Amino acid sequence: MIKILIADDHMLIREGLEKIISLEGNMQILFKCRDGKEAIDHIRKNSLDVALLDINMPYFTGIDVLRVIKNENIDVKTIILTVESDKNTLFEAIEIGADGYILKDSAADEIVEAINTVYSGEKYIDKSLVSLIFSKIKSKEDKNSIFDRLSKREVEVLLYISQGFSNKEIASKLFLSEKTVKNYTTSLFEKLGVHDRVQAALLAVQNNIEGYYKQKNRD
């Protein structure tokens, strides 16, 4: 059973998430919090699996709660709940290292998928957030590209990661096993010096992974 905490200052959001999650047989909501302070208290005192955190809350924001979790090494997966207008704050959450990022108005199946994904140890980012985040980043060319240290297959995997695809989806596109794709992601993370797929995706877009991929396929 996945033990879940929801933290959002809007009652309708809390109730909506509760309605969605309550239909899942493998999930249980233990706490519903109205602000970040309440969330921190419960996270510190209880054994939880996943915390869904509104990026903007009274007293302590979702970012503040995320920092506490990271600084105190609390073993709980985190999903940031956001809206399109929170783009700048979302970058801050990515730098700190949340496990998942979804829009508050995401479809029910996407919310369930996000919870299951982060619980399994993978990162999750709502596809609609991928273009939103990366629209702020200006692509740039680098003659001594950081991607030169990657194998051709790792570049392909990174390209799909930057487009918001999961390991399972990438495996299907490249006709590989999901385990093989996971091995490629682990290797390319190490080579690029990043900690997770969201940081890898940001780095990829910042350094124009699509342009690099097209150029290499022309050579």
TrEMBL record:
<keyword id="KW-0238">DNA-binding</keyword>
<dbReference type="InterPro" id="IPR000792">
    <property type="entry name" value="Tscrpt_reg_LuxR_C"/>
</dbReference>
<dbReference type="GO" id="GO:0003677">
    <property type="term" value="F:DNA binding"/>
</dbReference>
<dbReference type="InterPro" id="IPR058245">
    <property type="entry name" value="NreC/VraR/RcsB-like_REC"/>
</dbReference>
<keyword id="KW-0804">Transcription</keyword>
<feature type="domain" description="HTH luxR-type">
    <location>
        <begin position="143"/>
        <end position="208"/>
    </location>
</feature>
<keyword id="KW-0597">Phosphoprotein</keyword>
<dbReference type="Pfam" id="PF00196">
    <property type="entry name" value="GerE"/>
</dbReference>
<dbReference type="InterPro" id="IPR011006">
    <property type="entry name" value="CheY-like_superfamily"/>
</dbReference>
<protein>
    <recommendedName>
        <fullName>Stage 0 sporulation protein A homolog</fullName>
    </recommendedName>
</protein>
<keyword id="KW-0805">Transcription regulation</keyword>
<dbReference type="GO" id="GO:0000160">
    <property type="term" value="P:phosphorelay signal transduction system"/>
</dbReference>
<comment type="function">
    <text>May play the central regulatory role in sporulation. It may be an element of the effector pathway responsible for the activation of sporulation genes in response to nutritional stress. Spo0A may act in concert with spo0H (a sigma factor) to control the expression of some genes that are critical to the sporulation process.</text>
</comment>
<dbReference type="Pfam" id="PF00072">
    <property type="entry name" value="Response_reg"/>
</dbReference>
<dbReference type="GO" id="GO:0006355">
    <property type="term" value="P:regulation of DNA-templated transcription"/>
</dbReference>
<dbReference type="InterPro" id="IPR001789">
    <property type="entry name" value="Sig_transdc_resp-reg_receiver"/>
</dbReference>
<dbReference type="InterPro" id="IPR039420">
    <property type="entry name" value="WalR-like"/>
</dbReference>
<feature type="domain" description="Response regulatory">
    <location>
        <begin position="3"/>
        <end position="119"/>
    </location>
</feature>
<feature type="modified residue" description="4-aspartylphosphate">
    <location>
        <position position="54"/>
    </location>
</feature>
<dbReference type="InterPro" id="IPR016032">
    <property type="entry name" value="Sig_transdc_resp-reg_C-effctor"/>
</dbReference>
